[in-house]
Amino acid sequence: MLKVGYIGLGLMGKPIAKNILKAGFQLMVHNRSRGAVDELVALGAESASSPAEMAARVDMIFTNLPNSPDVEMVTLGKDGVIESGNSGLICVDNSTIKPATARKLAEALGKKGIEFLDAPVSGGEIGAQNGTLTIMVGGSEHALEKVRPVLNVIGKTITHVGASGTGQIAKAANQIMVAAQMVAMGELLILAKKSGADPEKVVAAISAGAAQCWALDHKPQRLFAGERQPGFKAIMQLKDMNIVMETAREYGIPLPLTAITTQLYAAMCEMGMEALDNSAVIGVIEKLAGVKLQPD
Amino acid sequence: MLKVGYIGLGLMGKPIAKNILKAGFQLMVHNRSRGAVDELVALGAESASSPAEMAARVDMIFTNLPNSPDVEMVTLGKDGVIESGNSGLICVDNSTIKPATARKLAEALGKKGIEFLDAPVSGGEIGAQNGTLTIMVGGSEHALEKVRPVLNVIGKTITHVGASGTGQIAKAANQIMVAAQMVAMGELLILAKKSGADPEKVVAAISAGAAQCWALDHKPQRLFAGERQPGFKAIMQLKDMNIVMETAREYGIPLPLTAITTQLYAAMCEMGMEALDNSAVIGVIEKLAGVKLQPD
Predict the structure, then answer these.
(1) Has residue B296 got a pLDDT over 80?
(2) What is the least distance, in Å, from the CA of B82 to any CA of chain A?
(3) What DSSP string runs through chain A?
(4) What is the ipTM of this complex?
(5) Of A104, A130, A163, which residue is a domain's last?
(6) Is residue B296 a part of any domain in this protein?
(7) At the N or C end, where does chain A have fewer CB atoms within 10 A?
(8) Closest residue to B180, CB basis, from A180, A194, A212
(9) What is the distance in angstroms between the Cα of B221 and the nearest Cα belonging to chain A?
(10) Catalytic pick from A104, A171, A193, A233?
(11) A171 counts as catalytic
């Protein structure tokens, strides 16, 4: 029986950990705040007092943390996985972090015989709950095959992209497109609204053609109903966009469109909308155009 | 038997006219250059020497012309439809033109009892050939019902958006999203390429998740094969983007993302890539980043 560790029981991590438990794996969890740990323990998980303690007792450790430094701390820091992890342990990072950090972790852990997979996910809280996430994997095929039984529980589409870091590159690519769709949706809905066309009819007219996309398929009905709660928080979208832009800078890749979508998410957060859904970036366009999609 | 007129037998108009003919309608055609007219006449269409001549002899006239002034000339100009069109005639404009021009034409024709529908299409040459276009209609429901038997032959999705001009607003909305998808696709493919990830694997990893869209579903395989021919020409995409930006300016709607995609299509055309497919806007990102998706 595979022993699985999960570190980071947040919006995404908690439902993922629950699905791993439900599928019958032995689960050990660790989290900064206690509430989510107690919840998982009540369902049958064990609790680990530190990543190091966990590393000595499981076959693989998943991490799902806010940003690059968090994953680095839990992995390479004090009481981190590297302190007690033995050769053969596999670390699988479900967080969205910098590709450069993923490669650094893979290298450092590799020296102790610990394998590292960057395995960021897409599909949001609902995908995490339903076990239908898209998982983009960078690292060795060999390690991927060992953790695949667990990944199959978390996600529907699992793609091995290539060497360490390429899973995070795929996630960056994903966020380039997601942000473009969300902002374009905001712009076209406000164009319709302010020019006197019915935004719902406009969406109906275009969503079966070349404009078809995930955002137009899933978000307009929520926006028309005045629903702007996450889903996927704007502040996390902005964090991901900053990773994209930093990575693009490292590789010398000017990204004019992504620069703009990043700035609009930055504006959204500065305007106090950081806790809303990423589709609520339409709120920035509303303020620029002085018109609202629907009455307050 | 409905008598149908079609003016403008270009890349889109010619296959549409052929489909109308194939469906059994009586067809009369008019076009600036003679070649396409002869082709349609050989298939059984009649030829009209001018829009005015056509207007006296058909029940409805479709137009499919490059830009706003062309449609205005054919409709309201010398030897135009308005000169001999009788009350009850219906004009259906399949071109992509300014919403403001569509409203102007509707008003001018309306004074003579001629109805006008703006009915721009999306779906490209292939959609025109297969009769699977998306049609966005502005104007009266009454006129739409009269021309619907013909529209059913040219398109798969027909949506009545609202009053005159709203069909063109929907097309503008469509182009906001299409341009965003195309440019974002270019940026993410070049990010993958230059950072050492396999662009094909990256597309495979993300295209079933929240990044899913028409562009990622249809264009990457062509780009990977080095195929950048249209499809839908960049110069026409730029024309449409200029309509979007002009319309946004008229209504006082700042569109930061669309301003950028418009500029990138402008750059593409200035760089000599105006006759390539709209997905070939990746060529601009390639030049900015100093890297090509695949060897020459």
Answers:
(1) no
(2) 27
(3) --EEEEE--STTHHHHHHHHHHTT-EEEEE-SSHHHHHHHHHTT-EE-SSHHHHHTT-SEEEE--SSHHHHHHHHHSTT-HHHHPPTT-EEEE-S---HHHHHHHHHHHHTTT-EEEE--EESHHHHHHHT-EEEEEES-HHHHHHHHHHHHHHEEEEEEEESTTHHHHHHHHHHHHHHHHHHHHHHHHHHHHHTT--HHHHHHHHTTTTT-BHHHHHSHHHHHTT----SSBHHHHHHHHHHHHHHHHHHT---HHHHHHHHHHHHHIIIIITTSBGGGGHHHHHHHHT--SS--
(4) 0.96
(5) A163
(6) no
(7) C
(8) A180
(9) 16
(10) A171
(11) yes
Residues B9 and B147 in one domain: yes
Domain count, chain A: 2
Domain co-membership, A183 together with A154:
no
Identify the pLDDT of residue A15: 98
- Answer yes or no: do A183 and A65 share one domain: no
Query: Exactly one of B14, B18, B104, B171 is catalytic; which is it?
Result: B171
A48-79 pLDDT tens trace: 999 999 999 999 999 999 999 999 999 999 99
pLDDT band at B266 (very low <50, low <70, confident <90, very high): very high
Instruction: Please write the tens of the pLDDT for every residue from B208-235.
Output: 999 999 999 999 999 999 999 998 999 9
B211 vs A contacts (CB less than 8 Å): 122, 173-174, 177-178, 181, 214
Q: A134, B206: Cβ pair inside 8 Å?
A: yes
B109 has a pLDDT exceeding 90: yes
Provide the CATH number for the domain around residue A18. Answer: 3.40.50.720
| Residue ranges making up the domain that contains B11 | 3-163
Whether A70 and A50 map to the same domain: the answer is: yes
Among A141, A218, A257, most B C-beta atoms within 10 A, so best to mutate, is A257
pLDDT level of residue A295 (50, 70, 90 thresholds):
confident
pLDDT value of position A296: 76
Nearest by CB to B209, which of A157, A176, A194? A157
Q: Which whole number is the average pLDDT over A95-124?
A: 97
pLDDT of residue B233: 94
CB-CB neighbors (< 8 A) of A163 in chain B:
196
